[in-house]
Specification:
The complex is a heterodimer. Chain A is built from 14 helices and no strands. Chain A is mainly alpha-helical. Chain B is mainly α. Classes of the chains: A mainly alpha, B mainly alpha. The interface between A and B is medium-sized, with 33 and 28 residues.
Chain lengths: 351, 218
Amino acid sequence: MITEWLSPVIGWMSPSWQYLVVHVLLTLVIVLPVVLAVAYLTLAERKVIGYMHVRIGPNRVGPRGLFQPFADVFKLMFKEVITPTVANKFIFYLAPVLMLVAALVAWAVIPFDDGWVLADINAGLLYVLTIGAAGVYGVILAGWASNSKYALLGGMRSAAHKVAYELAMGFALVGVLMVAGSLNLSEIVRGQEGSIIHWYWLPLLPMFVVYFVSGVAETNRAPFDISEGESEIVAGFHVEYSGIAFALFMLAEYASMILISALAAVLFLGGWLSPFQGTFLDPVFAFVPGIFWFMLKISLLLFVFIWFRATFPRFRYDQIMRLGWKVFIPVTILWIVVEGAFFYFEVGPWF
Amino acid sequence: MSLYQILFYVFASVAVLAAIRVVTVKNPVHAALYLVLTFFSTALIWILMEAEFLGIVLLLVYVGAVMVLFLFVVMMLDVNIAPLREGFIRNLPVGVFVALVMIIELALILGPATFGLELYPSPEPAPADAGNTLAIGQVLYTKFVYPFEIAAFILLVAIVAAIALAHRRRPGVHYQDIDAQVRVRAEDRVRIAELDADKTRRGDVAGDSKANQDKETS
């Protein structure tokens, strides 16, 4: 469709080059809203945590503090970027970029609505898992290249806990794959057609919990933010970063929060499907576009992220390791066996 | 040149250059990173060849897990590289000999006589809905199920053996017993001491001092 719109401009190119140009433009259509959402997620976080602490939160810049994110961005952009004298310069600046890339490229396979997906690939679930696994490099390399002991400790902690939670996450995805019978994210959402009880959160409830909590751990968010651990290792892997390089880390962290929420919505909460599908309310809400439901589910999950941060104290390091290796992985493996039994007895509408 | 060809040459040359840098670069962390780049480019070439499952799994296993642990170890090492780099001239003849033997062997197997273009015509591109993942799964769990399961079992045995060899309970090492920590109740840790009030201060008579002091403090 977009190829036809643009045909006066790019019609002279060969089809594969047209494909390239169109997809670069579509990438921008996805990435720019994500970046804007990141900006407002930081404001939402500060406001929500503020009200949870019975205070108001930022309210000075613009009406009700609505322009606060822009003030923050400009402040960070105009601050001096300091490079530690003995840091490995190339890797030092490569690390935040790698992290940001990992947080943004996975959006290519997320279906926003029926057919609204940049790359409808049939190994989408594997792709997402791989990109998530590659995201560890940003933290480890930042920790190493800073040439600072606190940064190195942060990077090490992060590498160890990410590998642990990566496995639990992978097993949770195996659970989804078993019910859906497909690795394509759009197919997974279509497999959840029906009402709210047809979504996979119900038969896969332990998987859903494990996936979301592992997602919180993967994004280095409280209560799993031991790689930052202000009270023990100053700020962990990004102690030495300032200005725009630090801003890139924050951008990557919030973008991957949104990504994890979007994936949880796609895999367990029916993606773009309406919760009233198949009930008497379905015609009433028929005018609501699918992307609205998808955004609503993402927002709810993001609220849970913020809620966690305001509620739980930070885990101790050995507790994090125990939760990942000794609780989550056995739970997911057990539930895969239970799913096998569900398949055999054809339980509920899902199998 | 089509986009496909341009992409192939870009990925292939990056893979080769990065592979050369793995063995020539001085810093072990840089070498590990070049290895990651090699894996990445190779995976992209595989994806170009319609083997998306293999490409993605290569990234997932090697880049996502193996190389992270590798980097973990390499970053902790404080090896002096200089002694490791000694003896280049002394070992050169052996190295050249081994390399030559390998090249000759490869040439015998991979030469045009056995892998020529006339023997292997370029395959038809798969239709758009054909998935490499499904195709691999269908043969892996039917035709090759025994080799697959046996390989998995051997790996499991290797893991168990490695853990059994490395894991020993040393005396004098303290572990956190988290179950005990979770089960603990306030009564186990906190003892509420009922202390008698200070009777020496004003020479109070024992007995009514408690009531008096309560009044004073309140």
